[in-house]
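Memo to structure team: turn this sequence into structure tokens by end of day. - J.P.
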Amino acid sequence: MKVFAFRGGVHPPDYKEFSKDRPIEVFPPPEKVRVPLSQHLGVTASPVVQKGDEVAAGQIIGQLKGFVSANVHSPVSGKVTALADVQLASGLMSQGVEIQSDGQDNFSSGLAPLGNINKESVVQAVKDAGIVGMGGATFPAHVKLQPPGDKIISLLILNAAECEPFLTCDYRLMLEEPDRIIRGAELLMVALGINKCIIGIEDNKPEAVEVIRATIEGRDNISVQLLKTHYPQGGEKQLIYALTGKEIPSGGLPMDVGCVVHNVGTAAAVADAVDKGLPLIERILTVSGDAVSNPSNFKVRIGTPISEVLNAAGLDEENCAKIVLGGPMTGMAQANLETTVTKGTSGILALTKNWVSEKLPDPCLRCGRCVDVCPVGLEPTEIEAFVTKKDIEGLKKSNALDCIECGCCAYECPSRRSLVHSIRHGKAQLTALRKAT
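Reply from structure team:
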């Protein structure tokens, strides 16, 4: 199969050597969890427990609200000690549920393995389990499995690119639990009513390619395609173009070109929900950077404070200059180490001042590098200027909402301008305007 090269992009050092050879370790359940009810794109889940309630691990504590929403389940057994706001990685606050663990880890989800596997039952199991995009986007998975009637889906793509530097959680999942991924792919195809899946893996992961190809041997409907290591290869639009040559139109979605994209971690979670009746209460994440002595890949319960995870990885508090949730290109710096792990937390980076620039941005040089590397074909400096001037019409004409916030522009900018932050602000302005009208 031909691999098409998408426009723009960058090729930063991947720094995966810190953690790529560290097997997944099961992180012990914390004594207390704080579980946000908004850890997915869409409407915040509604609490279905009260202070003082006893809950089991896996029990639903937040009911999805509307179509684009997701259930939230307790990651531990214990007592609800508070319904209070919880800080998200973005710095925004979400209604949340605080639970004091009883140390028993008693599990009772109310879900069960599916006896009759068909399109409707798989979609319902995914919905009941609260599964969202595990690559970081956190879009409710059941929504992607129910495309509108006028969208004809012919291809499932499993995103195994993991193009962000440092992150190796998907890589370790592919090496250690490939059967869960492939089982999830089969179930996702059942839900979509199709019989073709391509797993896209960057060519800097030859061991994972070998393992996955061995796992799908004998299956004609699932294939592995090697992708050029080039950031942001894991972006949905870039991944679809690389594998199919199809270009998603401005404002469009993968289903507009007959594709549905899910992360390999999402596929594994789907397998757990259907075959074991397990809701999404934990995830694999990478802890890395030069400010931890023991870079690791942990399987962590949702709601665990990131401080506990960092300490387990040997955080050097004295020399740590920045903590980032996610990868260095799209992640968000943290000021509060009591921020908790959510369904979308793919990594926690701890960096010393050797890796952190404190230089203030210089004026734009009009060099055009940000334009050259933008994989969507935008003009980031122009959008930044419209944001500064609060020019809403200019923001609309510049197609700011098409920005995928990959960070290529900021990475390439010689003036160190915070282009992604400006564009996010502009997108927020446009989104608020749409809601108001």
